Amino acid sequence: MHIWVDADACPNVIKNILFRAAERAQVALTLVANQLIRIPPSRFVKALQVPAGFDVADDRIVQMVQTGDLVVTADIPLAAAVIAKGGRALDPRGEFYTGENIGEKLSVRKLMDQLRASGVDTDGPPGFSNADRQAFANSLGRFLATAAQSPSRGQP
Fold first, then answer.
1. 110-131 CB burial, b ≥16 within 10 A, e <16
2. Given a cut of 50, is residue 146 above it in pLDDT?
3. CA 30: distance to chain centroid?
4. H/E element, 100
5. pLDDT at 151
6. What pLDDT digit, counting tens, does each position of 84-102 carry?
7. What pLDDT is recorded for position 52?
8. Neighbouring C-beta atoms of residue 78, cutoff 10 Å
């Protein structure tokens, strides 16, 4: 099992939670971004810088993700691609994308894109809160506890 992070837009507080969790659970964690990402010294944490460009980081994550891996992203199309490959996807606000909810989320995203394109101000997502941070930490903790019981848990 490997944790992949769509790191370009991931809040720093979430990255810090992930750094601590990777050490504690001894799980490989890779942050993928088109810019240099600072990471703590760790045998479990790596950063992968990809060339700049539309969806280059997302495409690399999809290329590398395997069944049972976790991807942390707020990007709904990336989450859909991860789910299609048998991975799990977790929003930085603590909500898992699933086969049951991803279709609706893609539809809402498409509608919001259409509204923005027609000039409607959609305000964007709310600011990141302490409740979001806690929800993420709780969801990640449950995921790692379940993964620790799996015999296929991988290490770097």
1. eeeeeeeeeeeeeeeeeeeeee
2. yes
3. 10
4. none
5. 54
6. 999 999 999 999 999 888 8
7. 93
8. 22
Residue count (the chain): 156
For residue 127, what pLDDT is reported? 82
- Are 148 and 140 in contact, with CB atoms under 8 Å apart? no
Q: Which own/partner contact pairs does 137-142 have at CB distance under 8 Å and 24+ positions apart?
A: 137/17, 137/94, 138/94, 139/90, 139/94, 139/95, 139/96, 140/17, 140/18, 140/21, 140/90, 140/94, 141/21
pLDDT at position 75 is: 93
Q: Whose structure tokens read 């750094």?
A: 19
Cα dihedral: 76, 124, 60, 3 (round 10)? -70
User: Residue 72 to residues 8, 39, 119: CA-CA distances in angstroms?
Assistant: 11, 16, 30
* Secondary structure letter of residue 96 according to DSSP: E
User: Average pLDDT for residues 116-144, to the nearest whole number?
Assistant: 88
Cα–Cα dist 95/104, whole Å: 14
pTM: 0.85
Q: Tokens 């989320």, residue?
A: 105
Q: Of 71, 77, 73, 133, nearest to 105 (Cα)?
A: 77
At 39 the three-state DSSP class reads coil
**3 closest CA partner among 13, 19, 11:** 19
